[in-house]
């Protein structure tokens, strides 16, 4: 069993679900993960295939919270992605992604898996970096994305069984591998008052 990982900006120890090709913690609030080729976390809605090879670093957060990071990666192959992750077990989890679409556009994507995965593309963004945020409000969760310094856009508002761990994932399902930077990682034990207000 690998040693717990400490990120100063994250308030609890983290653990690897799958080991990356390489990783680094830079300063107080930056994590770098390199995923190998053929790595993914996805269960096809028709049940035909389950993929769970992507490296992910997750930890336990208690109570209400927000966790955000600016994610950066060079998107080369379809479905390359930087991901904020909620993870209960291998059949119950949720991803908020900056992902390369099959058309090569950086896209905000969310996936919620309850036995099998769904797959929802929200909108394309102009560049290879964006801010992503997970919030917990009691028994429910909210995914937000932000492309400028103003307001957060609601991507998804949903419930998820269990008490999921929270963290960071890199994937390159069809490519030869991808390195992801999670910068300006921020945690707050703050409950959002309105998931749709942009706060």
Automatic annotation (TrEMBL):
Taxonomy of the source species: Bacteria, Bacillati, Actinomycetota, Actinomycetes, Streptosporangiales
Domain of life: Bacteria
Source organism (scientific name): Salinactinospora qingdaonensis
Name the record gives this protein: DUF1349 domain-containing protein
A Pfam match: DUF1349
Annotated PANTHER family: REGULATION OF ENOLASE PROTEIN 1
SUPFAM superfamilies, A to Z: Concanavalin A-like lectins/glucanases
InterPro entries assigned: ConA-like_dom_sf, DUF1349
Gene3D superfamilies: 2.60.120.200
